[in-house]
Amino acid sequence: MTDFNKIQETLVNLDAEGVIQLVNDAVKEGTPASDILNKGLIAGMDIVGEKMENEDMFIPEVLMAAQTMSQGVEILKPLLGEDDTSAKGSVIIGTVKGDLHDIGKNLVAMMMESAGLTVHNLGVDIAPEEFVKQIKEKNANLLCMSALLTTTMPMMKQTIDAVVESGLRDQIKIMVGGAPVTQGFADDIGADAMAPDAGSAAKKAKAIAG
Amino acid sequence: MSQELIIEQVAKTPEKVVLCGQDEKNDLNLTENRVHLGTGGAAIKILDPDTGEVRSTTLKDLYNVSRLADQLENIHFLVRPCIPTDIDEKDYDINMFYACLSGSSKHVMAGVNDEKGLQNVIEMASMIAGSIDKLQKRPFISVITSFAISPLKLCTQSTHIMQEANRNFIPVALSSAPMAGSTSPLTMAGTLAQLHAEQLAGITICQLTNPGAPLLYGGIPGMANLKTMGYSGGAVECGMMNAAIHQLSNHINVPNYNSSGLTDSKIPDAQAGYEKAFTALLAAMGGSNYIHHSAGMLESMLTIAHEQFVIDDEIIGNCCKVLKGMECDAEHLALEVIDSVGPGGNFMVSPPHHGTYENRIL
Amino acid sequence: MDLKGLQGGQYRPLSDEQIKTIHDASLTILEKTGMTYEEGLGDAAELLQKNGAIVDKEKRTIKFSRDMLTEQVAKAPEQVILYGRDSKNDLDLSEDRVHLGTGGAAIKIIDPETDQIRSTTLKDLYNVSRLVDQLGNIHFLVRPCIPTDIPEKAYDINMYYACLKATTKHVMSGVNNEEGFHKVLDLAAMIAGSREKFMEKPFISVITSFAISPLKLCTQSTHIMQEANRNNIPVALSSAPMAGSTSPLTMAGTLAQLHAEQLAGITICQLTNPGAPVLYGGIPGMANLKTMGYMGGAVECGMMNAAIHQLSRFVKVPNYNSSGLSDSKVSDIQAGWEKALTAVLASMGGSNYIHHSAGMLESMLTIAHEQFVIDDEIIGNCCKVLKGIDVDPEHLALEVIDSIGPGGNFMVSPHTMKHMRTEYFNGIGVADRKSRDKWEKEGSLDTKARAKIIARELLEKSEASYISDEIDKEIRKKFEILL
Question: Regarding the domain delimited by C6-14+74-387, which CATH topology (the fold level of the hierarchy) does it fall under?
Answer without folding.
Answer: TIM Barrel (3.20.20)
